[in-house]
From TrEMBL:
Its biological purpose: Catalyzes the condensation of carbamoyl phosphate and aspartate to form carbamoyl aspartate and inorganic phosphate, the committed step in the de novo pyrimidine nucleotide biosynthesis pathway.
EC class (word): transferase
Transferase recorded as keyword: yes
PROSITE patterns: CARBAMOYLTRANSFERASE
Organism annotation: Protaetiibacter larvae
Positions contributing to L-aspartate binding: K82, R174, R229
Domain annotation Aspartate/ornithine carbamoyltransferase Asp/Orn-binding: ranges: 160-307
Entries under Pfam families matching the protein: OTCace (PF00185), OTCace_N (PF02729)
Protein name (database record): Aspartate carbamoyltransferase
Encoding gene per record: pyrB
Cellular component GO terms, alphabetical: cytosol
GO molecular function: amino acid binding; aspartate carbamoyltransferase activity
Amino acid sequence: MRHLLSTIGLERAQAIAILDLAEDMADVATRAVPKLPTLRGRTVANLFFEDSTRTRLSFEAAAKRLSADVITFSAKGSSVSKGESLKDTAQTIAAMGVDAVVLRHPASGAAQVLAESGWIDAAVVNAGDGTHQHPTQALLDAYTIRKTLHGAASRGRDLDGLRVTIVGDILHSRVARSNVWLLTALGAQVHLVGPRTLLPAGVESWPVTVGTDLDAAIDAHPDALMMLRVQQERMHAAFFPHEREYSTGWGLGDERFARLAADTMVMHPGPMNRGLEISASAADSPRSVVLDQVTNGVSIRMAVLYLVLSGADPREVAA
Ligand code: CP
């Protein structure tokens, strides 16, 4: 695998193989066993033009647990404030000697441009581009669903027949877009729920069902309920219902959470707006896998860094 830019086009066998490789790396990711020498001598550059806690630190932990060196760039405090472009920033960092670039950028398509422009030779991993894609988030979400449902018997499994409901600000969510394509490639049935103003134009052509009624979606007893962050920083005021209207209609508040089936797992990619899209008691409940998602992100990112730096086909590595 040369780059990881999107979940669109990932085949079921490839996706299962990435999840299996992450499974093989989980003991190292969780520090149950010491770090591996696999990427010794390689350098991973984290280029973050947007804020991040989970993704940036998770990639850093993943690289270090495979013995790679890591250099980190945050646009804040950098020469981007003097007008330096993505091309010049990337080439400057590449000139210091990097093998892989992990890019988060506010522009949809930025990772693809960096990968295909020829500006740098390094492998490119998309760590979130605008409202477009966040492929490692979807991979860690799929891994978490599989692990929560199948535990030690997860290896080799897809998500055939599982029902995943994704709720909220679909319009601005790269997490939703990456999950739609990955989860359906793995055989899951995906249902999207949100206010009409936060459903993207053209969503009818996606391989999902779509609705606006969260209570009906909860009564349908999904295996996983994925609450999305309301991305007010990307939103025009006209799109956003009043906060109380939003939490009443589309938030997982205490009353709604009490009606949720006991075996429905509650997911959220983070960061959470507690009290808006999810209540504290739902976020902190035993049915919440939010922190498992964070933990699993390290092994997924180890697998992805290994694959892009080795150039291997995931199906051959996990075979
Ligand atoms: N889920 C996610 O991408 O979180 P961060 O913005 O903290 O990286």
